[in-house]
Amino acid sequence: MAPNPFPTAAPFLPPSADIPALATAAKGCRGCDLAELPGTQTVFGEGNLDARLVFIGEQPGDVEDHRGRPFVGPAGKLLDRALEEAGIDRANTYVTNAVKHFKFTMSGTGKRRIHATPDAYEISACKPWVVAELNRIRPALVVLLGATAAQSLMGGAFRVTRMRGQLLDGPNGSNARIMATIHPSAVLRADETSRDQVYGGFVADLRTAAAAINSP
Ligand code: URA
After folding, report:
1. In CATH, what class is 10-214?
2. Cβ(65) to ligand 1 under 6 A?
3. Which 3-state string (H, E, C) describes the chain?
C-alpha cells in the first residue's frame, strides 16, 4: 500500500477529552511514520493544566524518550536554568513538543540514537495534539522554542531569527499571544566564544514572556 501523503493524528484524538485523556490516547497514535520507529514512546506534554504560559519545543530527545517526559534531558536542564533566571517557575507552566515522538537515526556503531529533524509532514501530522493541548489549557502566552515549534503553529515562512522576542497575536483568532525564541539546544550547540551571549539572549526573551504574563 502506498504511504499516506498527508498523515495526521486527527483520527486518534478523542473528542472533548481533557489533557489526561488526550495523553492516554496519544500513546496509541499511529498518525505518522515516527510511531513505527523502534523503541520510542509518545512523549506528551505535562505541567500545570491551568498554566498561563505554555512552552512548545521540537520533539523529545533521547533522554525524554526513555523517560516519557518532555524537556528532562540536557536541553531541559538548560531550559530550567534559564527559566529560573528569568523568574519563571516551571511548576506554573505547561511544557510540550510540536512532535510527540523522538525521530532519530542510528550511529555508525549502532550504539547511539542521533536526533533527526522532523519533516514538515510529521510536524503537520502531530499538530492536532498541540492544538488540542492549547484548547484545553487556554494559556495567555505560548512560547515557541525554535523553528519546529514555530513552523507548527505559525507556518513554514515564519522566521524565528527575525521575530524572536516579539509578542504576537496567535493564529486562527486564538486568545493566546505567541512569542518565539531560540531552542535551548541552540545554546548547547553554540561555540564557547558566543555561548554566554546566546544564553543571555534566550534569558532576555524569557524575561519578556514573564513580563507579558504578569501584566494585566
Ligand atoms: N528538545 C525538545 O525540543 N523537546 C524536548 O522535550 C527535549 C529536547
Report:
1. alpha beta
2. no
3. CCCCCCCCCHHHCCCCCCHHHHHHHHCCCCCCHHHHCCCCCCCCCEECCCCCEEEEECCCCHHHHHHCCCCCCHHHHHHHHHHHHCCCCHHHEEEEECCCCCCEEECCCCCCEEECCCCHHHHHHHHHHHHHHHHHHCCCEEEEECHHHHHHHHCCCCCHHHHCCCCEECHHHCCCEEEEECCHHHHHHCCCCCHHHHHHHHHHHHHHHHHHHHCC
Answer yes or no: is the C-beta of 44 below 6 A from any ligand 1 atom: no
Domain map (residue ranges) of the chain: 10-214
> Mean pLDDT highest for which of 5-14, 40-49, 106-115?
40-49
CA of 56 to the centre of ligand 1 (A): 9
pLDDT digits (tens, 9 = 90+) for 158-167: 999 999 999 9
The predicted model scores a pTM of 0.96
